[in-house]
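pasting Cytochrome P450 for the record, 402 residues
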Amino acid sequence: MTVAPFNPFAPGFTENPYPEYARLRAEAPVHEHPLGFWIVSAYAEVNALLRAGLSVENRHLAPHPARDAIREAVGDRDLRGGGLSMLDRDAPDHTRLRRLVTKVFTPRAVAALEPDVTGIVDAALDRLAAAGGGGDLVDELAFPLPFTVINRMLGMPPGEADRVRDLTGLLVRSLEPLPDPEHAIRVYAADQELSAMVAEVIEHKRANPADDLLTALIRAEEDGDVLSDDELVSQVVLLYVAGHETTVNLISNGVVALLRHPDQLAALRADPALIGNAVEELLRYDSPVQLSRRITTAPFAVGGTEIPAGTFVLANLAGANTDELFWGPDAADLRLDRENARHHVSFGAGPHHCLGAALARLEGRVAIGRLVERFPDLALAGDVTWNGRINLRGAAKVPVSV
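structre below
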């Protein structure tokens, strides 16, 4: 049977990609795309792929015309941080980098942020209440919260916030599955500019240490091992970008889902203690990161299909999160009391499981919980505008009345 390839440009995909993911699961859960990558869309297969310890290093990719066009545009340079971030390294480098960063990005450090997060959320809700009874949820809450938190955690100067927002918005385009040489040039330039800004702040912190994550990363050491200057810049850029871009989607997409399911919103209002599991279900229902990449270094068998060595493989997190074979016949429904909601793969799985999962959960729990509690008349006040991304798909504008 000939299967129509994965098509993120199909009409309506930006607003709702889930029918396309359901089609892939039904017709070809392990599917080769004409542009040279494979996409795996069923829960069991995605989970196996993520836990298999496959590579994330581009040097293992076999030649392909689409990828060769990118190399011709930007050379053999990686689009993000010279390929030195945890996101782009295999063991043992990944293990070493993650261990050093984990020494300072601890669960205790994240939990201690809750009063700060609560204060930022309450100030944002005050602005919404004062702005004529509503506004854009993304500009007022979903973006400022994680951006402010990661800025404060790292100890970054606030003056460049607008420029940094533009740069990180470009940089996450490097995670899109379909290559575009012209866009690759802009992404690479954004990475260079943001890396230079971070390097400048690091030099300032070396001379003026403070009580922040950046200073702690500079000092992080284990058995004499420390981060090199280039490694330090790459980890900070990764934390900076991942620390807010994905959580924006969790908050905005999560609130949109609740407002489109008034019965579930009412259930949360009736039982505020449900918020922890509600965040897990919102993460499952509309994943802030839709896809995760892996690269085969040898033939890899999954779902009864062998994927060749040197292949770029997309783990379809959003497709796995709505797979009826795992979640049951109501997989497409939002149900905040779903008992196994935490089994979603929105934070990945295996060695590259998201280091910032605890921070995202904290910010989502406080932001969504307090928003729902504060405004009993919260409602959409217009059409939701989506950001047009395939991977970090999220709402760009969410007009609400309170």
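The chain has one domain: 18-401.
The chain has 18 helices and eleven strands.
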